[in-house]
Write a structure and sequence with these properties.
This protein is mainly α. The protein contains 14 helices and no strands. It comes from Homo sapiens.
């Protein structure tokens, strides 16, 4: 099997990849990610209204979301009943898998001098070796960065997993209106990740961007606690998207730089597991908070947690790296 992949990787070592080739890979990866997320949210957008039609309340809907998070966390390919969106999502995902395998190089990260590659002929760690995966979380600075990533994402994750219910109960939106709002959210996210963060990273360090994202989270949380209409939420969305995108990009960059080339994929997997983890715990917790205290509680939680995170960042700065966020 290794011989079959040799022609695709031959002459394209990560350090020698041309600028044009690297740009093509980045563009293709961006398109694939956008396609996959679009198909995923096509299904997400109809689930809340379908659940409401079937008589589920916010707590039961939270359990449904928790089930989805558990399955997503475990990586199981779970499909529901066939709806046109599900078929389209399956076909688009299959196309994305084919393009990923045929057009993206096996490795795109340059070799490091301190990378600890396995010796030729030596034993190789199993992909299911949980000890090897957990060992990455014990590397210098990795636990603190990962904790900041999870803690700062938690309040927003609680709000977003309950947003479908909030859009129906609190904002009184119809399915089409909720779809427009999510499209606005997605458009801002695309612009922020594709344009804004790249420009900011060329002028500011990762530490500054990380602190700024947490600080904006606090401001957004304060405003969210007083939010009373969908118009108010639309005013908050740019700040929320900026903080969410910047935090995830910066922390992912820090974590990837903290490991060797051979462990890049594992660390990316750990980074990607944060959202499924929040989707596992968030719906149940979010449903209970929403039923007991209403929408303002999500703003209060966001302010409290991110204030603690900001104090930690100011007390002990993150390690500085020479290369910028990409």
């Amino acid at each position: 099997m290794q011989g079959a992949r040799a022609p695709r990787d031959q002459g394209q070592s990560p350090g020698r990849m041309s600028a044009l080739g690297r740009s093509s890979v980045i563009l293709l990866t961006y398109v694939l990610a956008a396609t996959e997320l679009t198909c995923l949210f096509m299904q997400f957008s109809i689930v809340p209204y379908l659940s409401r039609k079937l008589g589920l309340d916010s707590i039961a809907f939270g359990y449904l979301q928790t089930t989805f998070g558990v399955l997503q966390l475990l990586g199981g390919p779970v499909f529901g009943r066939i709806q046109c969106p599900a078929i389209l999502a399956a076909l688009a995902t299959l196309l994305g898998a084919v393009l990923s395998f045929t057009c993206i190089p096996a490795s795109t990260k340059g070799a490091k001098t301190d990378a600890q590659a396995p010796l030729p002929g030596g034993p190789r760690a199993s992909v299911f070796d949980l000890k090897a995966i957990a060992s990455l979380l014990r590397l210098p600075d990795v636990p603190r960065i990962f904790l900041v990533k999870v803690a700062s994402n938690c309040p927003t994750g609680l709000f977003m997993v309950m947003f479908s219910i909030i859009s129906m109960d609190f904002f009184q939106l119809e399915a089409a209106q909720a779809g427009y709002l999510m499209s606005f959210f997605g458009l801002l996210q695309m612009v922020t990740q594709g344009l804004v963060i790249g420009q900011l990273s060329s002028h500011f360090s990762e530490e500054v961007l990380l602190r700024a994202s947490v600080l904006v989270f606090i401001v957004v949380g304060l405003a969210m606690a007083w939010m009373s209409s969908v118009f108010h939420f639309c005013l908050l969305v740019p700040g929320l998207v900026f903080s969410l995108c910047t935090l995830n990009v910066v922390t992912d960059s820090m974590l990837i730089k903290a490991v060797s080339t051979s462990d890049t994929g594992t660390m990316l997997g750990l980074c990607a597991s944060v959202q499924p983890l929040l989707r596992t715990l968030g719906p149940t917790v979010g449903g209970l908070l929403y039923r007991s205290f209403g929408v303002p509680v999500f703003g209060h939680v966001q302010v409290a947690i991110n204030t603690l995170v900001l104090l930690v960042l100011w007390r002990k700065p993150m390690p500085q790296r020479k290369d910028k966020v990409r």
